[in-house]
Every structure is written in structure tokens, then in C-alpha cells.
Amino acid sequence: MLNMVFLADSWLSSFNQPGLCITVAVLLHYFLLAAFMWMCLESVHFYLALVKVFNVYVPKYILKCCIAGWGIPAIVITIVLIINKDFYGNASHSESNPFSNFCWIQESRVFYISVVAYVFLIFVMNTAMFITVLLQIHSVKSRTQKRSRAWKR
């Protein structure tokens, strides 16, 4: 959906309808945040599968993942819309080219808080999960090598 909205964004902004542009910008923002949230959930699943291999039963796991994957971005979008719906709107790469219009976040502070900080937090979380999984794989490998040396003796 992120790709579909992104591809239609420039065309829809050419209609110069503020409500349509706000809707497209909100959808684009939502699907971007949702894509990153699902990436974060994949890293959590990776951690559970490779580090916490046994006794990892989580009741209604998929439901909880869906609530987090679709709900957390919706909370961010709702907060931005509650503060001011006019943070979304029509923007342009250049004033001379009318075909460079697009619907997106107008306020730079809102962009940095609701997109850049969000993506940064997910990046930090994914990096932490990745390092933890690498350490776990390394420790399993070293234990296996020690056992094989002991068996050879």
C-alpha cells in the first residue's frame, strides 16, 4: 500500500484539493510507519526464534503483532491529526515545475519527530536485536566446537 499511495501521490496532488491531499499524505505517512513497525516486529520474531528458542509461547501472538504493527502507527498519525491536521498538505520540490507537487508533511519539526525519530528508534531496536542474535549464534557455535574437540580427545 505504501508503494501504491506513493505512486499516486503526485497525480492526486495535481487536483489541488486540500482534503484529498491531506488524506493522501496521512495514508502515505501511515503506511510508511506501518512498514517500519512490521520490520521491527520481524526483528522481535527473529529474536524469539533464535535466542528464546524454548518456552516462548505467547498467547494470541499474531493478534498482538497485528495490533502493534497496525496500531502503533495509527496512534502516531492520530496524535499528529489531533494537534493540527494542517501539518499535512501539498508541497513542491521546485516552484518552477508544477509537476513536482506531492502531498506530505509540511512542518519540518513534525516530520523529524513523527518520521525520523520513529525510524531511528526502530533502527536502534533492530540493531540491538541483531547484535543479540549474533552473540547467541556465536556462543552456540563456540559451545559446539568445544564439544567436538572434547569428543575428538
Automatic annotation (TrEMBL):
One function term, GO molecular function aspect: G protein-coupled receptor activity
Membrane association type: Multi-pass membrane protein
Main location: membrane
Annotated InterPro entries: GPCR_2-like_7TM (IPR017981), GPCR_2_secretin-like (IPR000832), GPCR_Rhodpsn_7TM (IPR017452)
Cell compartment(s), UniProt: Membrane
Superkingdom of the organism of origin: Eukaryota
Annotated G-protein coupled receptors family 2 profile domain residues: 1-153
GO terms under cellular component: plasma membrane
Matching SUPFAM superfamilies: Family A G protein-coupled receptor-like (SSF81321)
Pfam families, A to Z: 7tm_2 (PF00002)
Keyword Acetylation appears in the UniProt entry: no
One GO biological process term: adenylate cyclase-activating G protein-coupled receptor signaling pathway
Keywords: Membrane, Transmembrane, Transmembrane helix
Limits of the G-protein coupled receptors family 1 profile domain: 1-153
Listed transmembrane segments: 20-41, 61-83, 110-137
Name of protein: AGRG4 protein
Taxonomic lineage of the native organism: Eukaryota, Metazoa, Chordata, Craniata, Vertebrata
